[in-house]
Amino acid sequence: MAPQQKKPHACRNPDLIRGVGKYSRSKMYHKRGLWAIKAKNGGVFPKHEKKAEAAAPVEKPPKFYPADDVKKPLVNKRKARPTKLRASITPGTVLIILAGRFKGKRVVFLKQLTSGLLLVTGPFKINGVPLRRVNQSYVIATSTKVDISGVNVEKFDDKYFGKKVEKKKKKGEGEFFEAEKEEKNTLPEDKKEDQKSVDAALIKSIETVPELKSYLGARFSLKAGMKPHELVF
Amino acid sequence: MPFKRYVEIGRIALVNYGKDYGKLVVIVDVIDQNRALVDSPDMVRGQMNFKRLTLTDLKIDIKRVPNKKTLVAALEAADIKNKWDNSSWGRKLIVQKKRASLNDFDRFKIMLAKIKKAGVVRQELAKLKKETTA
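Output (structure tokens, whole complex):
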């Protein structure tokens, strides 16, 4: 039961106010028990020999001194993190997209990617929105939630959505170029399969709630008399 | 056009401004020309300017400045809460509150229901029109 580290002792000399302790020097000497340590050591405070300093490696004087002082950049300890997710946005929340090609569409939130963007899907069959990334700032979170437990979104990350890197081809002229362009416009088959697999489970849980399917298929718009600051989403 | 709702001890009023907006309170005493002492089961008794109050038709039978206990008992005996909720004014307020708290999905469902109802009404109207012209 010999503890390796003793608990740090509570303060022996509490502050009366900042800068003034409760006990005087002589009282503190007594409290710290220095008299007992001295008595144990025959009247003298025990000393220990100074450790011989290891010889520091010999530093050569630099060959070159810069003419002006070089400024060192300030230290920066910030870590990159994904954007803080609003508390109202949880997996399965229905979001309203506010900008871009799909503005007004009501869409299901799947997860937040490491870049901070939100991974979202229509589902595609219901409103034409594919698996897509969307910025949190361009989104209104409604309080409607969809059950998302049957969906596996592990494999989707920012690299999945990145632009495909073109391999550099030698500059062929005319026909060569056009043939290449045509290939790129179609979606690769595996992406279509991913969309289908994600949407299958989602659509099942959407169809259990009455009218949710047509809700997701409809676009949101402000009508006369609607005041956004008074609306509850 | 004589007055019908008077400021009197026991008059129930609706607060229309301030921290207690929307609450039903009982006028328990009159302080001066402008202010009343006002009380409710869920608030500390305090003064309120008459301008912050809207008088209702309801009134309970209490003596001037009753105990909180007596006040609550009198409110229960007169069944003010239910009388208020069943009155047309009270029902309007309930509907307003419900509308303000509607979700985006709720609003969508209501829109579908309205369209459906209108469709049914229009069908019936068309039937009736046919009969009268025939």
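Chain B has four helices and five strands.
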